[in-house]
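Sequence, please.
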């Protein structure tokens, strides 16, 4: 079968376009899926670069087939698979191997698709949608009247966080690095958009909230913004650091959280909030239903093939993408 594999970590040059990759074996508790589409994500770039080489949460090791999000049709079921059948249309995330014609996926991570949900939209939304869902519903627990700040709000997860926060009745402040990206966040429903590259965001947030700050900050940027996030948060507020695209803050003293107002800081990961098939299906159902009724929107930026997937990686690394790139199998 066709697949994009890596045997060493590095830049796009380590991607191997194979036409003779072995078909995955159907394991107990897994389903074999014929891929229709795969999402292309920053996690794929990080996998290629080796950032999960020692991760226990995301246990992907060399050699491997790239791709941790996909959709397709079940063609075989392993032992101990109970409520998924051959012919079911499914999608999944945080199980590697989707840059290929076929993938063996743990049944516990698979969600069935509703009628009307295309494979393209499913592959473009289940990872970011599930991430935004658990961050809003389980971690932040936003309620009507809550206030939040979302950094990098024009990214795929950021756009969904904006929309879900507004659906919960929150007042939403955002940051983004360009005027185009700030305009995108406003179109998604953000109330105020700031340019974090110019500094002073925390002061602007304080001014806009009568000096209090926001209840919750969603920070996927990391080193470049995290201390400003502390300053933008109100006393006893919550900082949700769910990514570190600018690097990790390695010199943090917990006393800073006390000085900033007895703040709570968490570094959650999706895998710990997708621990069984019921939870996976619940999150997918919420995201897919909202996409189908129009209350959530996900833009597919472009469709790539196995022959030019490195172009998508380059756009992601250069922060050029605005919508979600997908791989058409």
């Amino acid at each position: 079968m066709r697949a994009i594999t890596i045997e060493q970590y590095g830049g796009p040059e380590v991607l191997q376009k194979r036409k003779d990759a072995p078909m995955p074996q159907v394991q107990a508790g897994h389903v074999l899926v014929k891929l229709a589409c795969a999402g292309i994500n920053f996690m794929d770039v990080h996998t290629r670069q080796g950032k999960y080489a020692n991760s226990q949460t995301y246990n992907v090791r060399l050699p491997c087939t790239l791709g941790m999000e996909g959709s397709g049709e079940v063609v075989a079921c392993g032992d101990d698979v109970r409520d998924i059948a051959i012919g079911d249309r499914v999608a999944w995330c945080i199980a590697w191997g989707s840059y290929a014609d076929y993938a063996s996926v743990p049944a516990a991570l698979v969600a069935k698709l509703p009628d009307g949900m295309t494979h393209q939209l499913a592959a473009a939304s289940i990872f970011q949608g599930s991430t935004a869902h658990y961050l809003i519903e389980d971690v932040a627990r936003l309620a009507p009247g809550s206030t939040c700040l979302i950094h990098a709000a024009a990214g795929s997860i950021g756009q969904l966080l904006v929309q879900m926060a507004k659906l919960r009745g929150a007042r939403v402040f955002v940051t983004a690095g360009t005027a185009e990206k700030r305009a995108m966040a406003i179109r998604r429903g953000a109330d105020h958009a700031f340019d974090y590259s110019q500094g002073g965001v925390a002061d602007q947030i304080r001014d806009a909230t009568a000096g209090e700050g926001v209840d919750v900050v969603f920070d996927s940027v990391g080193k470049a913004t995290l201390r400003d996030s502390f300053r933008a948060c109100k006393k006893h507020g919550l900082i949700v650091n769910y990514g570190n695209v600018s690097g990790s803050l390695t010199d943090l003293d917990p006393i800073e959280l006390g000085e900033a107002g007895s703040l709570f800081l968490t570094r959650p990961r999706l895998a710990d909030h997708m621990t069984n098939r019921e939870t996976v299906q619940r999150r997918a159902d919420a995201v897919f239903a909202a996409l189908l009724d129009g209350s959530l929107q996900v833009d597919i930026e472009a469709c790539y093939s196995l022959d030019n997937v490195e172009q998508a990686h380059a756009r992601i690394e250069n922060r050029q993408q605005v919508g979600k790139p997908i791989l058409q199998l």
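The chain has a mean pLDDT of 95.
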